[in-house]
Amino acid sequence: GPRPVDRGKPGSKMHVLSDANGLPLRVGVSAANTHDSLALKPMLSHFHMGHESHATESKPQRLHADKAYDVPHLRRWLWGKHIGVRIARKGVESSERLGRRRWVIERTMSWLTGYRSLNHRYERNPGNYLAFLGLAAALCCYKRFLKLTM
């Protein structure tokens, strides 16, 4: 935050990569006092959407993110990976314009935090918390699958 007293805050952040429909594809956890932009490379580095033989279809086409990810080295890294970027620039664009897509990830975060063990962090071990987060993501995908097949 803008105040220096926020730098040492305890807790953790959830990082979620979702598709255009809001299905959680990849989840991650970081410390609350780290910048959001540091979690993007690990989330995307080993991520494949399709089969290995379909190399052009196995990577995300476009990435929508908030202003926290507006860092020049991340834009260059994504450009090098041929991933389109739609990030509000700091001081130039308002994030209200990005609201057409923003609600998708906000809904996904709401689905994940709807599980009691994820609403507040009860687990001290980050590995256990990440496991619960992965389980919640799998349950969200399963519920969506049931809706589509019923």
Description:
This protein is of the alpha+beta class. The protein folds into two domains: 1-34 and 115-150, no CATH class; 54-105, no CATH class. The protein is built from five helices and four strands. It has helices at 40-45, 72-80, 99-113, 116-119, 126-149, and strands at 12-18, 24-31, 62-65, 84-87. It has a two-stranded antiparallel sheet with strand order 1-2. A two-stranded parallel ribbon has the order 3-4. Strand 1 (12-18) and strand 2 form a beta hairpin. It starts with 11 loop residues before the first strand and ends with a helix. 11% of the residues are buried. The mean pLDDT is 79.
Share in β-strands: 15-25%
Order of helix and strand elements from N to C terminus: EEHEHEHHH
Structural shape: globular
- How far do the termini sit from each other? 46 Å
Structural class: alpha+beta
Low-confidence stretches: none
What is the oligomer described by this structure? single chain
Radius of gyration: 16 Å
Secondary structure: helix percent: 25-40%
Largest sheet: 2 strands, antiparallel
Give me the side-by-side strand order of the main sheet: 1-2
Tally of separate domains: 2
